[in-house]
């Protein structure tokens, strides 16, 4: 009221002194905020939706609660569960960054978990993070457990040597300085006997949370009292599940490893004891009113049934204490506690992407949402499993059923079995043709069994793909491209054999499982080489090594980046000066005994039209940067801008050939590199990578072509053909679309602003216009990059790039920009008739230097192609200064030329704004037969125009 917020949402941050309860307001934002989205997902109360309706004149008492359908929105939500949110950091992408957590936000995503107790909720959110941890302890990263097993020097999952107990000075520092790993060091301190008072003094974490963590630490002693899984009695195992312990933790503790096989072994034993989760509703009212929206979370509840004891154990009498925690024995959860309501409609389960991080972000959520929409359009029930509160897929009205659960093998199988009509009391939990026998009667159930047509693992990035083998082993029906085809594309030996059989080129390469193998391969194919682990997204752990010493350093420091055990390192010849392209494809092939054929059509369905192929090119994206910059960090355009039409047709033909060879059913992404020759016929096309799944490029291609390709692909996976859907290729849209990446360098002082094969961007924007330079300019504005229309430019490029920068320098000079250069760049340009002001190196001590001029506002743009990385170098200090001072910077010659042409276009032309629907009209006129099915996915009147973001220096792609 005092601020003047008459309607809408507000966010207020408070600080409370735990000693006396004194409370002060720190900050107030008269708008919805990041935490508003979290609160909405935690309570089921749609804050932004309500705020929007209030803004147009409604009052709270006029609005209905969507969850209950019969209560008013003027009642505050009430919850009977605990929600825990945990941020997701990606410091591994910025090894030189300071990991200390301060008032400057450094996380790039978050996960949320719901449980009936804090302990359960905490452990669920930890395993939602996908950081090789499946709970607070007892997993492969547990230093205490590693030392306990060996009673000597041991190793954790990341192959770090562990000495127990930890050094007290180190532990004190880990507790006193906030960082992403502090929670685990609190546990170690408790394991070493540190009193809660000492931990509280170092961390200032409230005693409530420390007490809860101590409960888990003490219960570990109970679990460690058994040496074999079969020895664990039902009551102890049930209490472990109530406290949030995962099957993976128990597998590591009792079976010595975490694999799909060991997790399924624990699962089978747990089910033999009748210990299965129940599902509760998020209803905004603590069960006071009936909820109509199926928004669920899992938990383990006491019930009225009896133990289904499979090992001869009997429950203790009279609720005797289990441990120092005084946790009583409890009976098996009965179906009476399960609030899930099933229908007899077929269901399609979509696995989301989990927390956002570099390499796997909101692009995959776009795909998951369209899969849900596709299922609804086909009359199927869509089921979403995800743990990310930032996404649209976790809105309660995106899918027919929403399960806010960790994306682990255990949690996904629990949902699949429950939806298949098996609450875990017998049977394998899946329908292979006919429905299961009815499950025990459930309250509010429309039907006691339900058919799951299949799971979609293609749309959530690497997260669901990592679960695919385990799900397949458990008998879960995976639809779309087969797991074997996905593995074929990732397994370098098999994939190389496939390319050879198809007569397709690839860069010379090899697979190394040791340092000696890596060195031998690099010597054979020649430096520079591109090295990366297998089975990762976002170029994680990828580097370009130009000399043997760099390769040796990589093999001794980065070979454990892969999420999978025994994953080899892939080594490819790096193609310098090559143009990279991304190709997205949708196909409806299916495997047969004879090989591959188009999807068949049964009953009265229309046969495939001969005019509609079994694979369609969604889009060909040409990168503005040359090969070597990760595709997620590169700017790219639709349509292509430099490739010959004949070369593009060859690219499309190769993509179709690969889709057929891999039996693709759904989306596929192909990355290629083109070494351009004297003529188009001389262009050499190399296959870099094939991903028979949705790629992060899918939203960009969809918006550029005005077609929701993931929705079409999802329908194909659910049984439709491209012919039935009337899908067609769109070659011309009448406009250029440019994707540009957004980087977080302003959040990480000291990190060198250099792009390479490892992805570092955290988002992307798109510019669209009938002129390519203007479209590029719009993309830069959208990304917060200021392209100056006049002023001075500093150029410093490595020797090999000097001929490539000549056209850019001449264009900027002709536009009236003052040119400042480093010594070598200035000499080269002068020899070509372009006069510049040469500045001395910073290390020389001569003043003013380039940083001085930037600080005085006399340098408006920096163009620097790195020769060395690291902010301690002369050029590294310049790049760091651009971030600090907000000066735009370009680190590639192709990006510099695109920027110069954009500046020229901005000075010569006025540019306007069109709604996406207007661009679709242009596309309908330009393309053969219109933009095709799927629509834009945008509401009438929506406008794609860059928002003026806070200026953050980043390398312009």
What are its keywords?
disordered C terminus; alpha/beta; Carbamoyl Phosphate Synthetase, Chain A, domain 4; eight-stranded antiparallel β-sheet; 957 residues; 32% helix; Rossmann fold; globular; six-stranded mixed β-sheet; 5 domains; 30 strands
Describe the protein's architecture and organization:
With 957 residues, this protein is α/β, with parallel strands linked by helices. The chain has 5 domains: 11-69, no CATH class; 109-335, Carbamoyl-phosphate synthetase, large subunit oligomerisation domain (Carbamoyl Phosphate Synthetase, Chain A, domain 4), CATH 1.10.1030.10; 340-479, Rossmann fold (3-Layer(aba) Sandwich); 577-731, D-amino Acid Aminotransferase, Chain A, domain 1 (2-Layer Sandwich), CATH 3.30.470.20; 760-914 and 946-956, Rossmann fold. Helix content is 32%, strand content 17%. It is built from 29 helices and 30 strands. The strands form 7 sheets. Strands 17, 18, 19, 20, 21, 22, 23 and 24 form an 8-stranded antiparallel β-sheet that branches. A hairpin with a 6-residue loop joins strand 1 and strand 2 (23-29). Helix 10 (247-255) packs across helix 11 and helix 12 crosses helix 21. The chain is globular and about 85 Å long.
